[in-house]
Amino acid sequence: MSGTFITFEGPDGAGKTSVLRAIVERLAPLLGDKLVLTREPGGKDSQVAEAIRDVVLDPNLPSMDAWTEALLYAASRRQHLVDTVLPALAADKVVVSDRYVDSSIAYQGGGRRLGIEAVTEINQFATKGIMPTATIYLDIRPEVGLQRIQENRQDEINRLDVEKLSFHQRVTDAYHQLATQYPERFLIINAEQDLADVITDTWTALMPILGIHD
Questions:
Q1: Is-above-0.85 flag for pTM?
Q2: Fewest beta carbons within 10 Å, which of 6, 87, 175, 184?
């Protein structure tokens, strides 16, 4: 694996979409076709992973078992790796993914109370231990993130967005546990700042990872 694998993580409402868009706009002129932008569940050029995404995020399936959900995310992730991430890394490209393994550990392991170790084990099997070079974590209190969703994303709310505050608090707690466990990989950004400041801090954190200089 010779390329660079960057993931973006954070609770709902942290502003990942806006931050990612701004970062990609800066990276595209520098990297050209060496930049691969993708996201989970699903992923760029992965028909099977996208089909699983449609099921796992369907708001009309509220009865989905928590373990089924976790396994579907892991299955989608495996296909995403095979179709998109690993070929790009083998070609020495920079892969930027909106969510990866940490999301499953936080949302299913923490939020769904399946256990961080159990969900980690499922994803170790699915990914064969492939982990990012670095993870940008947009840190925000769950109550602030949920307020943002209600104000700005009424047309895009999915099954996970409508969970109670306690669910999202468990998600955040799990993310914090991961950040403590892997401090060399997690780059923590205060997502409660103005968007421009969040973007600046994210870019500054990524520069040494990607070998970019002012």
A1: yes
A2: 184
